[in-house]
Design a protein that fits this description.
The complex is a heterodimer of chains A (391) and B (130). Chain A has 391 residues and is of the alpha/beta class. In chain A, 40% of the residues lie in helices and 14% in strands. In chain A, β3, α4 and β4 form a beta-alpha-beta unit. In chain A, α2 runs parallel beside α7 and α8 packs parallel to α12. Chain B has a three-stranded antiparallel beta sheet. In chain B, α1 packs across α2, α2 crosses α4 and α3 crosses α4. The longest helix of chain B is centred in the C-terminal third of the chain and has 30 residues. Classes of the chains: A alpha/beta (391), B alpha+beta (130).
């Protein structure tokens, strides 16, 4: 059976170039990078090369602004909890959005129990956070703003620079979760006025289990993990050298090839949207029509439920998802589509297709054919026959 | 996440569809929870001789509806509410905790069908008296 993977927003494979750089680190350069002997120094040098590569990839001013973590989730935790706790004497108000990843939202819940006040900004029907709502939410005691760079659910790219400029002028820290944006949107942490920026390796053809937080020089942070004082005391725990080496290579490749990958992916994405729209009635493509990631398409199918579509596609060898894999063990309706005020039938009928960089047009034809079959079959099973598609 | 058994019920349901002129119809669920179940029962006297379902929902909801139909066939309509969500769960095998509510919907749809049957019977009685 054919195998077509349309879930790159959940995770990508490790590219061969990345793997080849990682392999010797497991067996030859395996020493603890904190050890003082030669082998330790060699391992430490490898980590510093990766740090340089990542700093270059996101255009940080200096490699010393990159801190390695165990995941994108941990980078978000360190940014939000760390910045709030270290700066609480300045104020206890934080501005966030309703469409953030759970690793941001859950941290904010914890901070609420510590006496912080959070304002959650909504998104419009395109998934775009309102600048006016943001300006209205600002308070004299606001210490932190967190807004994702691009949505991993619907692909909408936010106007980060417009928000960060206001935050910069007022001396408010600005954090962005750039996990979904990395490799898809050119990132310039310095010019974009970002103080804290989270990224992860396994969305850009690197290994799982490693992320990083960009921390602009001079930004006060309190660690969330304590121990041996690695990463200048901000993240204790033996350095995951092979994963970090892979991460460095992955970011180098992703930023080097961003233009060509984007162009290819956009072509496939637009072809896919056109084909699905022509073939299947009563659907809605979610997210911003223009300002969107090249690799993510969210579509709502009226009168049926998304997970059933995903499972029928799985039978045809196609891997897609109903949204963030981090949400799939929860019963609640997708929080991003809910914040975008989609009607319930379109929230439950949503499927996310996210492309790998090597996707072929011909594969899209097969996907649309199988998707059409699955949707027809489920609509036949459904008791709802007349469409109530919201326009 | 899903067992082979559940997926087989989802992919190859034997009782999907509707019965024109059904003797009892039940409905459960709503759009906000994401699942809508509808069941149609055909009777011979008081015995359920055929059952069909229509479902808008996840694989577990569709499988639960399929199982409910096979449990209902052969039963006396007046006892059909003895089918509980536990019976449905037993037939489905292991379901993820977040999907247990699908079996509760199955129980509700049966109860709703029985209510519909009783309502129809009462209407018939009334007509006879006239």
């Amino acid at each position: 059976m054919r195998k077509i993977y349309l879930d790159s927003a959940a995770s990508t494979y490790v590219s061969n170039d990345v793997l080849q750089e990682m392999l010797p680190v497991f067996t030859t350069d395996f020493a603890n990078s904190a050890s003082v002997h030669n082998m330790g120094t060699e391992a430490s040098n490898l980590v510093e090369i990766a740090r340089e590569r990542i700093a270059k990839g996101i255009k940080a001013r200096s490699a010393s602004e990159i801190y390695f973590t165990g995941s994108g989730t941990e980078a978000n935790n360190l940014a939000i909890l760390g910045a709030a706790r270290a700066n609480k004497q300045k104020g206890k108000h934080i501005i966030a959005t309703k469409i953030e990843h759970p690793s941001v939202l859950e941290c904010l819940k914890v901070l609420e129990t510590e006496g912080f006040k959070i304002t959650y900004l909504t998104a419009d029907e395109n998934g775009m956070v309102s600048m006016i709502a943001f300006l209205h939410a600002l308070r004299p005691d606001t210490i932190l703003v967190t807004c994702m760079m691009a949505s991993s659910e619907v692909g909408t790219i936010q106007n980060i620079r417009a928000m960060s400029k206001v935050a910069n002028d007022k001396g408010i820290l600005f954090h962005t979760d750039a996990v979904a944006a990395l490799g898809n949107v050119p990132i310039n942490a310095e010019e974009m006025g970002i103080d804290l920026l989270s990224i992860s390796a396994h969305k850009v053809y690197g290994p799982k289990g490693v992320g990083a937080l960009y921390v602009r020089e001079g930004t006060k942070l309190q660690p969330i993990i304590y121990g041996g004082g690695q990463e200048k005391g901000l993240r204790s725990g033996s350095t995951n050298v092979p994963a970090i080496v892979g991460f460095g290579k992955a970011v180098e490749l992703a930023t080097r090839d961003i233009a060509i990958n984007n162009q290819k992916c956009k072509q496939v994405r637009d072809y896919f949207i056109k084909k699905v729209t022509e073939t299947i009635p009563f659907i809605q493509v979610n997210g911003h029509p223009m300002q969107r990631l090249p690799n993510i398409v969210s579509i709502s199918f009226d009168m049926i439920e998304g997970e059933s579509i995903v499972m029928l596609l799985a039978d045809a060898g196609i891997a897609a998802s109903t949204g963030s894999a981090c949400n799939s063990n929860k019963l609640q309706a997708n929080h991003v589509l809910t914040a975008m005020r989609l009607p319930m039938n379109l929230i439950h009928g949503s499927v996310r297709f996210s492309f790998l960089k090597n996707i072929q047009i011909e594969e899209v034809d097969y996907v649309v054919k199988e998707l059409d079959k699955a949707v027809k079959r489920l609509r036949e099973m459904s008791p709802i026959k007349r469409s109530k598609l919201a326009k | 996440m899903y067992t082979e058994k559940l997926l087989d019920l989802f992919k190859n349901p034997k009782h999907n569809g509707r019965i024109i002129g059904a003797d009892a119809v039940g409905e459960a669920g709503n759009m906000s929870c994401g699942d809508i179940l509808k069941i149609y029962l055909k009777l011979d006297g008081e015995k359920i001789v055929d059952a069909k379902f229509q479902t808008l929902g996840c694989p577990a909801a569709i499988a639960a509806a399929e199982v409910t139909c096979s449990l209902a066939i052969g039963k006396n309509i007046n006892n059909v509410d003895r089918i509980t969500n536990k019976d449905v769960l037993n037939m489905l095998g292991d379901v993820p905790p977040s999907k247990v509510h699908c079996s509760i919907l199955a129980e509700q749809v049966i109860k709703d069908a029985l209510k519909d049957y009783k309502k129809r019977q009462a209407a018939l009685e009334k007509q006879k008296k006239k």
